[in-house]
Fold this protein.
Amino acid sequence: MSSAAILCVDDEIVILESLKEQLKRNFRDRYIYEVAESAEEAWEVIEELQEDDIKILIIVSDWLMPGIKGDEFLIQVHHKFPKVVTVMLTGQADEAAIVRAKQKANLYACLYKPWTEQELYLTIDSALE
């Protein structure tokens, strides 16, 4: 079993299922694929992964979510885990949020909905190099 994980955060379960399916199809069993429907749930997943000594490599987060925007969540993640690669997935993030995430969360990339499986694969693959 892998000791490295990719975490996807989005408030739409259909998006999460699609991301997870595409990641599994492209990276097979190289990683553990976790999903969370909110930033709050993501923190719980992060805590569980840490308890199991599983390293989080990448977090792909939606921007528009209830409770907290994706850029704010990724900034919090970056402060606590500076080595985790952050990717924002959005259909409607404003440019200011993307700039803020680049400056404060070391945002690696921003994918726009609807993304292609090729875009997702290339982004994640290059981030892991």
